[in-house]
Amino acid sequence: MSTFLNNFFPADTAAMDPIFFSPTNGIPSESKLATYMNRQNVATPTGYGLNNGFSLLNLDSPLPVNKKSQVTPQSPEFIPTRINSSPNFYAPPPYHNGPMQLTNGLNGVNGLTAAAAAAAAAAAAAAAAAASTAPTSSTSAAVAAAAAAASSTVTVTASSAPIAISGAPPNPAAAPFVSSMSAQTPLKGRGGGGGVGGGGAILGRQESPTTGSLGEKSPPHGMTPHGASPIPTTLPTSVHQENVGGTIYFYPTANAQNSQPVGVNNVVVDATHPAHHGVSAVAPLSSVSGVPSGLLYTGHVYPGPASNVIAMQPKTQLESAFFIPDEMRSEILARNEISNLIMDAAEAAQHALPLDVDNYHALYPLEPPAQPLHAKLTLPASTYRATHNTTGLKYCLRRLHGFRLQSTKCMTLVEMWKKLQHTNVVQLREVFTTKAFGDNSLVLVYDYYPGSQTLLAKYFTPTPETNNYTDPFQGEARPFSHKSNMQRTNNGPLLPESTIWSIIMQLTAGLRAIHQAGLACKVLDPTKIIVTGKRVRFSSCCISDITQFDPNAANPLALVNMHQQDDLTALGRLVLALACRCLQSVQRDNVQSSIDMVTRNYSTDLRNFIVYLFTTNNRRSVTDLMPMIGARFYTQLDALQSQIDMQEDELAKEMENGRLYRILVKLNSINERPDFNLDCTWSETGDRYMLKLFRDYLFHSVTEDGRPWLDHAHIVQCLNKLDAGSLERVQLMSRDEQSVLIVSYAELKNCLENAFSELMSST
Ligand SMILES: Nc1ncnc2c1ncn2[C@@H]1O[C@H](COP(=O)(O)OP(=O)(O)OP(=O)(O)O)[C@@H](O)[C@H]1O
């Protein structure tokens, strides 16, 4: 819903350009503004009296449903997966907000700063002077148009019945008609806009009819939540009003152009006031953020981080409250980089990979060529990252070279694995055979986790030390102490017990899911477990089930119990190796001394855990391990929940960015488009013209003395209101400062969606 204020009420009629002001309605048909008014092919009635027009503004009159639906829903983004989740911004605010709602339409009204209020007062005083000299009735306020060269100043001079300047909102109940001209932060210039920023045309706050004091937020007389329009029913015949598709425009008749400033109750447009360029002080954003119309978009404003999250962060600097923490950023960047790596020519030649393998392309090797799969399996194997042809998603492909599938019966097991979904198991997606590599290969497709390391690489690889220097501060023991030396292994210092328990909890969780699904891991080995950040996952499930499949066995799952017991033994060996940080520690001859070492360095619980898994004469179960983990489970849960809190907070910040980015993409795809459907004025006319002015308001606001006014918060806030389709209004000004337009963000949003849909439909 918008109101169009053309500063067509010239103070100096001699300055009138008869071409610019057409005799019928004062708007030249070829002007951009006229094209906006005529948009949507709505016939613009001529000679339509202001009285008639105001009768349309009855707050009781329901808005046609289809009109409402134009702006109510969050229109779908051009990203196909976007889900419509926008709240209903037209829900009527509670009546007790009435006084604030009254100023709903005029952005910045409610939050006048002292400076802005002072400016408004000055403007009012000047306007009063102008009114007193006007030949029209001194009892009614005058409306004067600013001359073309001078920006308009609209202010209030008297305390009679208020006047409506702007149009009925889409939902009258939601935004009662603005019956008081409220003061706005003076705005300036091309970018001059509503109360948030700019300078230029000043809409002075109407004096309260009850108090007569300028700048107060008193509701005007006659305002009822759902009652009759407070708008006066008599207006000068020299002012035309038109309702075009729900938007009300005001413009002068030819009469008005030849007459003195037209009195329209309280409103005076004072072209002569020295403050016509606005005041240099702009209302701080905070001054407008509290308006009730703002409530309509508050869901679209990032409220800042939660205190619990700030307390959790190592740095409590202000920047960490608004930007993603450095550590998280670099982790994500590193993962992205790995995920986007492509082979150079030398690598491509070395690997000689096919362009396509089944439904996948862009293969990228994750290891040097042709590794033997595993000690137990003598087949050579390779691991690649690849991209799915249709979804574009990246997967991890494990290829078994020269492997012929003996029987498709093993597909039963494949299906069981595909169904297994667990955060500690890399999920199998599909299995296929292919000749794309020039041999018979079997390919298993898994989820891909960029930046993963095998447990072997992470914990069992000698750390490169410069000049045999070992960092004495590594590890838990006091540096340079005897214990510190004892706790050092070739692969680095012993791991903190909490790290070992964290790995244990994750592995037992994954194993429990596997065993409960009636399967066995079979390769519980440090090369077949991957670590991504702090997450540990079984990475090669199902391979053994295929390669060791016996097509003659009556029941392929007959031996699963035995394999599950083997899994538990393998888990015990792995934990012992981790605790000693040495793979040799689990060799038969070393086991006892390794357990002694665990006894010396770690808790009895950890020792008992390992001993239990090594005790093979009893039937063991993964669920029996839970009591041994005990209360450590709560510590782990707490750590994970803290991490979730932090990540959710980051998500909230980044959600804002994503949303604002998409609006900017739309705006910029429309603004200044040189040509659309052979129409080189497309981006300059109709809805697009409004968007252009809004763009100027967003980015090109200037101070009174013409300096750029840059305020990130202003941009963010306005974009948020636009995205929410707030009913709050913004005052836009044409670049030549000839026209002022007051428009709600809802209307702007509508324009944006329409214009963008037009673009999209022609792509
Ligand atoms: N699902 C996955 N997502 C991302 N990277 C993975 C995934 N699975 C394995 N990797 C990575 O691929 C590489 C090769 O994995 P692989 O399991 O073959 O380890 P490996 O040490 O080469 O074992 P082997 O010596 O038995 O071949 C490793 O760097 C591993 O981190």
Query: Number of DSSP strands?
Result: 20
Question: What's the shape?
Answer: elongated
Quote the beta fraction. 5-15%
Poorly predicted regions: 1-26, 40-236, 255-291
The number of helical runs is 25
Rounded mean pLDDT is: 68
Largest sheet: 7 strands, antiparallel
Structural class: alpha+beta
Bound molecules: adenosine-5'-triphosphate
Helical content stands at: 25-40%
Distance between the termini: 29 Å
Number of separate structural domains: 2
Radius of gyration, in Å, reads 36 Å
GO molecular function: ATP binding; poly(A) binding
Domain DUF4797: 217-256
GO cellular component, one term: P-body
Protein name: PAN2-PAN3 deadenylation complex subunit PAN3
What does this protein structure show overall?
This protein is an alpha+beta fold. It has 2 domains: 2-71 and 97-296 and 681-745, no CATH class; 341-630, Orthogonal Bundle (Transferase(Phosphotransferase), domain 1), CATH 1.10.510.10. It contains 25 helices and 20 strands. The strands form 5 sheets. Strands 7, 8, 9, 10, 11, 12 and 13 form a 7-stranded antiparallel β-sheet that branches. The longest helix is centred in the C-terminal third of the chain and has 39 residues, at 632-670. It is elongated, with a radius of gyration of 36 Å. It binds adenosine-5'-triphosphate. Adenosine-5'-triphosphate is lined by residues 366-367, 371, 373-374, 381, 383, 396, 426, 446-449, 452-454, 456, 527-528, 530, 539-540. It holds the Pfam family DUF4797. ATP binds at residues 398, 447-454, 527-528. InterPro entries: DUF4797, Kinase-like_dom_sf, PAN3, Pan3_CK.
